[in-house]
Task: structure prediction
Amino acid sequence: MIDLYRPKDKAVVPILLFVHGGGWSAGSRKMGEGGQPAHFANEGYAWASAGYRLVPQVAVDDQAADLASAIAWLVKNARHYRLDPQRIVLIGHSSGAQLAALIATDPAYLKAAGVAFDAIKAVISLDGAGLDVPGIMAAGAAGSPFYKGAFGDNYTRQQRLSPQEHIGPPDAPHWLLVFDAGHNPSAGRFATAFAQGALRVGNVDARVLPIENTTHMRLLEELGKEGDKTTQAVDAFLKEVLGSVPSVP
Result:
């Protein structure tokens, strides 16, 4: 379940894998197919929008495994589609950011899928939910049907599915954690705690970026649009962490 968009030239390009949100129990890969594919293809990247099975039909563990399998498919077919299997960036929105961060901190998922962990060069979290699962459950999310359905009451399970708990080598080396500063202060608090932990324990590059005058959904919907501050920040981050990419005529 992957929709793949890439520049029309013949250059080998890095892969941006989008992981949609929806509270683990809803959403679709089509959420990442607005203006994003055209914009990032024009910047010289392949944009892959991945689907995964939903709660309650499967558990969060299975969702992470589905996404690891999607990464394995991209790596396996990289030559055919002229993709660079050594330069992959995960971009997750909302609950999709938790899944992306889990894959990029807990090496078990990529190992099971047969993918080298160091293929993941960076993670971009857009108003990420669940970076610290026990923390956000204790802060009130336990009353949310989305969180309750995804993580339940078992503290050990919550820890196992929490990216915060897996901070430490090996982690993806670069992180950009964007959050809606006006409407979602808890996202900023948890993103900051995650970044501080990653910098201290994992010795990685982790940056937190508040965005004003936006909303949870606008962060995604306006990604790829001209003049959008999140897009500008993401473009600059990608150029820095992935190096130069072939220009697209």
